[in-house]
Amino acid sequence: MKFKAFSEDDFKLWGGAINAQIKQSKQGPPPRKVIDVMFLDGSKFPMTIDTASTTAEDLWWMVCETLRLPNEARECFFIWLLGSDMEMLLCNDDIVYDQVTKWHRAEKRYSDQALEGPPRVVFRTTPMLELKVERNLKDTKSVHLFYIQSVFYVLNGYYIVDLQQAITLAGFAAQARFGDFDSTKHGPGYISKYLHKFIPGWIMAREKQKPEMWEAAVAREHKKHAGKPLMIVELLYLQIVRGAPYYGSTFFSGKNRDRKQSAGYFNQLEEGYLGLGINMEGIHVFKKNKYMNSYPWKEISHWEIDQEKFFYFQSSVLDGSGFYAQYLIETKRAPLIRDLINDIVFELKREKKVIQSIRKRQSSAFDLVRRAAGVSVGASMKDAAVQDMAKGTFSDGAKPVERPRAVSRKDKQAESDSDSDSDD
Fold first, then answer.
1. What distance in Å separates the CA atoms of residue 31 and residue 270, rounded to the nearest whole number?
2. pTM
3. Nearest Cα residue to 169 out of 231, 224, 236
4. Could you tell me what percent of the chain has a pLDDT over 90?
5. What pLDDT, on the 0 to 100 scale, is given for residue 387?
6. Which pLDDT score is estimated for 394?
7. What is the CA angle 67-72-78, rounded to 5?
8. Pick from 175, 151, 164: which is nearest to 232 by CA?
9. In whole angstroms, what separates CA 141 from the centre of its chain?
10. Per-residue pLDDT tens over the stretch 190-221
11. Burial class (CB in 10 A: 0-12, 13-18, 19+), 73
């Protein structure tokens, strides 16, 4: 095949491409390495990656293909790196091997704990996943991935449950793990041997009951679910945990600073170490395995990061004492909180644009119908059209905008540039 050069720039491009090919042929193919991609139930499978070129998006695609996830479910998951006390969502264009090998730098920057070994490469949900989108996914593979993630968060104390909820959830988990209760198979010890996989450790430490008592309580719940298929059991488990406003959050910890009025600052609602959960609904506050409060995004009047180690936010709604809730959290992960909130704001703006576009299109269509028929169209019909939009079904056959996974920095910049151009 012959090519024609129309300018000197064409020759430069060709020369650069030829030199790159020569250099690559001398170096040989990029080294390949097998890594374990893990799930939150501890299961894993090996994936072969190119250490120099495989991006997080490439690995995400490989995992989705291996699992044969439905297309509508793939955008709900992405690649994370998890350490003992820190989790980090990768961006689309991050080179996986580089991020794994540089993990110790991230730990030193964002964590106060002693350095550990390489992180786990984990496939789990994105923090930009809305609950209404998750609920619409009914395939067995997606439901199971949501289920094992919820079990992980319950057992590790991120999702706060009371004693009765813990036993109820343990009964569902026992049915999912063992199937129908059978006295010939499930004798003494069948739960107590694996008690940490059914009851949150902090609840066991608080209640101080013997393993046999825990097993009896869980077994009673287990017997209630005889005959229920695995997917139904997992959905029943999810039905309970999805009721919490902080479901699907990414969690952070930090110290709520005691800034006194005498210093010209404000008094804190809570002092000491707090936990924060951040999801598409808002910011959620925890203290010592106790859920304190939630602040929806529409009620947060201001938030900022200061000195790369302080996260501040203020509610626009008065609390019971007549003050606006304010928090100043000292945490080395403040930059990660900023990145996550920026991702969420980016997604919320994108969704708002889609809604506005659909409403405008639907309004134009209804106006045409009204003029052609000579009658007025009720608002309820327009509301129904907007609901169809939320479900991803449009009367004109258009498809909804794909949801981002971990939006790359380049994508964000391009989006912000286009926003500024449109504003002009």
1. 52
2. 0.77
3. 236
4. 57
5. 47
6. 34
7. 60
8. 175
9. 17
10. 999 999 999 999 999 999 999 999 999 999 99
11. buried
Phi and psi angles of residue 121, each rounded to the nearest 5 degrees, phi first: -90, 115
Q: Which tokens go with 340?
A: 């996550």
Phi, psi (degrees; rounded to nearest 5) at 282 = 160, -155
Cα 84 from Cα 286, distance rounded (Å): 19
Work out the mean pLDDT of the chain and round it to a whole number.
82
For residue 296, what are the CA distances in angstroms to 118, 246, 283? 35, 10, 6
Cα–Cα dist 11/5, whole Å: 7
DSSP string, 364-409: HHHHHHHHHHTS---HHHHHHHHHHHHHT--TT-PPPPPPPSS--H
* Of 122, 354, 112, residue with least CA distance to 252: 112
State phi, psi for 102 to the nearest 5 degrees.
-95, 10
- Cα–Cα distance for residue pair 82/251, rounded to 1 Å: 12
Query: Measuring CA to CA, which residue among 351, 366, 372 is closest to residue 396?
Result: 366
Query: Angle between the 409-423 and 334-373 helix axes, to the nearest 10 degrees?
Result: 50
DSSP state at residue 261: G
Identify the burial level of 292 via C-beta atoms within 10 angstroms of its C-beta, where 0-12 means exposed, 13-18 middle and 19 or more buried: middle
3-class state of residue 294 by DSSP: strand
> Could you say which DSSP state residue 297 is in?
G
Residue 265 zone, left/alpha/beta (φ > 0; ψ -120 to 50; rest): beta
Which of helix, strand or coil describes residue 90?
coil
Q: Using alpha carbons only, give the angle 374, 375, 379 rounded to the nearest 5 degrees.
A: 145
- The rounded distance, in Å, linking the Cα atoms of 392 and 104 is 42
Q: Which of these ranges, 64-78, 173-187, 407-421, has the smallest mean pLDDT? A: 407-421
Residue 28 per-residue DSSP state:
-
Give the whole-angstrom CA distance, residue 327 versus residue 271.
Answer: 9
Here the tokens at position 258 are: 């005691």
Residues in the chain, overall count: 424
